[in-house]
Amino acid sequence: xxxxxxxxxxxxxxxxxxxxxxxxxxxxxxxxxxxxxxxxxxxxxxxxxxxxxxxxxxxxxxxxxxxxxxxxxxxxxxxxxxxxxxxxxxxxxxxxxxxxxxxxxxxxxxxxxxxxxxxxxxxxxxxxxxxxxxxxxxxxxxxxxxxxxxxxxxxxxxxxxxxxxxxxxxxxxxxxxxxxxxxxxxxxxxxx
Length: 192
Description:
InterPro entries: DUF7110 (IPR055534). Residues 166-192 are annotated as: Disordered. Pfam families: DUF7110. There is one protein chain. The chain is an alpha+beta fold. It has one domain. It is 18% helix and 39% strand. The protein has helices at 20-29, 82-87, 112-115, 122-135, and strands spanning 7-19, 36-44, 47-54, 67-78, 100-111, 116-117, 140-147, 150-157, 160-161. Strand 8 and strand 9 form a beta hairpin. The longest helix has 14 residues, at 122-135. The N and C termini lie far apart (57 Å).
């Protein structure tokens, strides 16, 4: 029987955006991490939910598995950069219309609780999000995760994995050696 691995996602921040069509193509062709057989995509108005389907048949259909949440936005995409076109010198008097179309984008924006929800298969869905980040041409994914006691920093910028470090600093509560708290034993307001 395999031992239970310890996997967690502690911090996550995402500004990823990619065309909805590209996201569907990516999920259709993806190989999922162990524990996930499929990812179901559901759209409710302008919200997109990507939900993990567990390999484990003993998981109740009422048990919420990890899911990624994105908002759907429409952006106008130009065949040619309109700013670049305006800056080029033109001899002709009339300006040609730049070809464009409205494209729906999936935007995975926010922190862990906003983008990555529910704990069952959360680490595995984080790996799915990393794959999506590498397919996205716009945005950044940064995260701190843990696998079997080792912390791992993730940083993917505009589709490219980048080096990342974890820096441990003293927090505001770590500064003293027990100072600042109430000493209940020597408190003059408490009597025997």
